[in-house]
Structures are given as C-alpha cells and as structure tokens.
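[Q] Does anyone have a clean structure-token version of this?
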Amino acid sequence: MNALWLAALGLVLVVLPFVLSSYHVFQLTQVVVYAIVLLGLNILTGYNGQVSLGHGAFFAIGAYTTAILLDKTGIPYWATVPVGGAICLVAGFLFGLPALRLEGLYLALATFALAVATPQILKYRHIEQWTGGVQGITFAKPDPPPHIPLDSDQWLYFFCLVIAVPVYVVGWNLLRARTGRALVAIRDHPLAASAMGIDTAFYKSATFGISAMFTGIAGSLGAIVTQFVAPDSFPIFLSLSFLVGIAVGGIASIPGAVFGAVFIEFVPNVADAISDAAPWAIYGLVLIVFMYVMPEGLAGLLRTLTRRFDARGERGLAGAASGRKREPRTSDARSP
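[A] Here you go.
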C-alpha cells in the first residue's frame, strides 16, 4: 500500500508542472525548497528537542553562497548547492558547540539573535563588495539543458525536486536508524540517554550541523529559483515561518515537513486575496484555527484518522468472522 501511495505521489509531482501556469510552477518549486528547510528544522526541533528561531540565518548563508559564487566565479549553478550545504554544515556544527550550554528558551533566544543579526551583517560595508550590501546580488535564471523540452520554470522545479528526493531519503534513513533513536532519547530523557552511553554533546552538535546543512541546501536552491538575494529577503519572520511550518505540518513527522511547506507558501497568498487591508490578521486567524483543530499538526490528524479507519475495519472483520462462526452452530442445533 505504501508503495502504491508513493507511486501515485510521484506521478502527481511529475505531471503538475505541465498542467499549471508558470507562476504556480514557481510556487510549487518554493514548496519543494521550504520542505527541505522544514525537514532539517524538524530533525533538530521535533526529533532532538532543540528549538531554533534562527534557521533563516542558515537559509541566508546558503543563498548568499550560491549568489556570490555565481557572481564572482564561473562555477556552474548546480555545483553551488553542495558548497552551500557544506558551509552551513560547518557553521551549524560550530554554532551548536556553544549552544550545548543552552536549553529551552535560552537556546531559542540565542538562535533568535542569530536570525536578527544576519541581515545586518550582510549589510556591513566592509563586505559589501561580496554581498552587494543593501542592494543584494542579482543573476540570470539558469536555462534548461539543451534538447530537454522544458521551460526555465519547469526545469528549476525538476532540478529542486531531484535534489529534494535524496535529501528526504537521507533524512528518513537517518531518523529510522540508531542515530534517530539516539536523538529521540536525548529529547525525551537526556540524563538516561547519557547514562546509556550516548554522547549527547556530539549528537546535539551534529544534529545542529545536519539541520543547518539541509537548510543551506534549500537556501542555495531558493537563490537559484528567485535569481536574487538581499539582506531584507531574510527577515526574522522567515525563521518564525519555518517554526510555524513544522508546528502546522506536525512535529517529529517527515510528511509534516511537506504539509508545513504548503502552508507557509500558500496561506499568506490566500490571506492577501481575502483581505488587502489586514492580511496578517487573516493569517493569524487561520493559524489559530489550525492549532485548535489540529494540535498535533496535519500529520497528526491524518494519523488519528487512519487509526480510526483501521480500527473500524478491524471491528467489521471481527464481526463478520464471529457471524460466520455462529452460523454452523445454529444449523447444527436445528438439524435432527
């Protein structure tokens, strides 16, 4: 059944860019990019319990890495993606080392400070020859390879999707293996995990690095998709949106990252369409409704509905089986 669902999902993802307009293909590509970010943040916050309000900073680092390399060197655009991920891996691991002394709200405030400081650092005049200062960096949209019948928007969608699929496979395998069990143990019972021989310091720092790496990859892809980066493109609200995304999609849920990406991409647009005067009021109202109706996120709601459906099916099968067992007894009683 899971294989059938995955095949159906793959078919839909392949067909969609051919039936949607260029703008909607662009939005769909943004969903793919945000889904990678939310996967990384969910590994850190959902599975390891480290709350981050600063992943917009790592997203900016990945985006600026791609932009600077494309602006200053002749490196192909696809080669900038692993570079952005590697730089964010190192940056996240190094940030995670001093963050070991912080937990809960204190860690959240430290990451919040990182997100607040990053746009100001990017505007610093002594590095504006690289970052472009307030004006940012603009570069051309990549063309699809020759002899491939796709336009630029469709090509960028498939390019991002081809990167997102192995990233999700790596994340899924990581969380289903011994490493994932160690992360959950550290989240739920840190003292017990340490007593069992789990190196909590290493796992926390490594998790921060891996989460930042996924976010940096997404930032590089986001820069390629939009062909523009600027300090004001990475406000603190971007980091808050990422946290909202994993809460709406479902904490500690891999599919929840995709649901959250759809939310943070489309709900603001829907709010703008409903009210030009107060779109953020509509956004806040929708968020309140989501949290009230689905306290465990959309993935949690789907799990609950699936369990209820399976329970009804099992009760129906049990009732049918018991009925079949009683029929022979009735006939035997009536027989002479």
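[Q] Thanks! Anything notable?
[A] The CA atoms of residues 163 and 217 lie 9 Å apart.
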